[in-house]
Amino acid sequence: MIKEYRTIQEIVSPLMVIKNVEGVTYDELAELELPNGETRRCRVLEVNGDTAVVQLFESAAGINLATSKVRFLGHPLELAVSADMLGRVFSGMGRPIDGGPDILAESHNDINGLPMNPAARDYPNEFIQTGVSTIDGLNTLVRGQKLPIFSGSGLPHAQLAAQIARQAKVLGGSQSNFAVVFAAVGITFEESEYFVQEFNRTGAIDRSVIFSNLADDPAVERIATPRMALTAAEYLAFERDMHVLVIITDITNYAEALREISAARKEVPGRRGYPGYLYTDLATMYERAGRRIGKQGSITMIPILTMPEDDKTHPIPDLTGYITEGQIILSRELHRRGIQPPVDVLPSLSRLKDKGIGSGKTREDHADTMNQLFAAYSSGKDAKELMTILGEGALTQTDLLFAKFAEEFEARYVSQSYDSNRSIEETLSLGWELLKILPVPELKRVRTEYIEKYLPKDAGT
């Protein structure tokens, strides 16, 4: 039997203290009923004896301590899941906002999910094609991987996220078995409309589930939105055997909401005011991605975060880097020069790229081509710096060729329009096309048989 309590003692938005409660548990969902009949949802953050601290998901305005009632529902916050979620747009709390009907739920799943037993994890080793050369060719995304994008304020991470969401696919498999779950956390209305319109324009909406939390929504809703998305992804992956790509933008807004609630609870702050449990909290989200032994489906995650002041040592990118398997870093300098997407190739990294490339997955020459492109681009950037300091006359002919390679590499390989969808074959062939700028003896990281097979015949000697 559900009890109603009229013992609200204090409200410090977004927190509310209720006295004389019985049988209340951590993370339990509750409903607050106002005198006018309006109901608002909240959840239990802390229980101490007969006192419960609950977190409001909506505004605290208009709550009367004496006449408002609280009901504890006996279960945590849940998401109604079914295959009908595909093609739909939801609020950050899982309510349909696209004008369509409510979901006919097959089940109601706890948004906190269940920890994946490490012994039940299957190793990520299958290639996902995003159509973006700097990712597919150099920092390959592998099914079941967590590969974040580190961006900065004003950089076009939204365009890159939309491009990956609509272009990503599993090679050799049915595209009806591939889905995208997109979670927008704390973004503006214009950004939210951009994503929805892009998905509708390209038809990607048919295989997508979108959760949209706007900047003017309550901060506490941002805590729930990524978990709503991951709950939908777990259902599609492990109950519907689909390969799911989860894109979450922006993790920085999520962490800021976490800091705001931590301050309201008067917790001892950690680095830069963020709660000391930020690492653990992020890990509870990131570690829900992966593959399970005995399950056909998988969850691959691309969290996007804007680094405050472009600082990679800031707690949010720093802790994210510890938990995930690499990072794609966007460059402000490349963005100023009109290169799109402005992916900074050299500091970017995919720790699992070697597991998803090669014969039978992409192409036999992929690893060698990737290593040679990295080495040549690095040498070319060094040559351009020397040219700036010493002048062009101080460089050897080979150095000049490497400098030319670096310019061509940025202009043709890194830069592609946000509507350009390159297959892995096109990306690898473009890499060989650029390598012909260099003398063949300088291609020291590529096997001779691959040079003879793939290098264009008009290459330098």
What's the oligomerization state? single chain
Globular, elongated, flat, extended or rod-shaped: what is the shape? elongated
Mean pLDDT: 90
Biggest sheet architecture: 10 strands, mixed
What structural class should be given to the helix and strand makeup?
Answer: alpha/beta
The number of helical elements comes to 12
- The share of residues in extended strands comes to 15-25%
Rounded to the nearest angstrom, the distance between the terminal CA atoms is 84 Å
The Rg value, from CA coordinates, equals 25 Å
Unreliable residue stretches? none
Helix content: 25-40%
DSSP, total strands: 22
Task: Give the helix/strand layout.
Elements (H helix, E strand, L loop, with lengths): L3 E2 L2 E5 L2 E4 L9 E6 L5 E10 L2 E6 L12 E8 L1 E4 L6 E4 L15 E4 L10 E2 L4 E3 L3 H6 L2 E2 L6 E3 L5 H11 L1 E2 L7 E10 L1 H14 L5 E7 L4 H20 L4 E7 L1 H14 L13 H9 L3 E3 L5 E9 L8 H9 L2 E4 L2 H5 L12 E2 L15 H25 L6 H18 L9 H12 L12 H7 L7
Parallel strand pairs: 9-17, 14-20, 14-21, 16-17, 16-18, 18-20
Antiparallel strand pairs: 1-7, 2-3, 3-6, 4-5, 4-7, 5-6, 8-10, 11-19, 12-13, 12-15, 19-20, 21-22
Helix pairs in contact: 2-3, 4-5, 6-7, 9-10, 9-11, 10-11
Describe this structure in words.
By secondary structure, the protein is α/β, with parallel strands linked by helices. The chain is built from twelve helices and 22 strands. The strands form four sheets. Strands 9, 11, 14, 16, 17, 18, 19, 20, 21 and 22 form a ten-stranded mixed β-sheet that branches. A seven-stranded antiparallel β-sheet has the order 1-7-4-5-6-3-2, with no helix packed on it. The longest helix is centred in the C-terminal third of the chain and has 25 residues, at 366-390. It is elongated, with a radius of gyration of 25 Å. The model has no long low-confidence stretch (mean pLDDT 90).
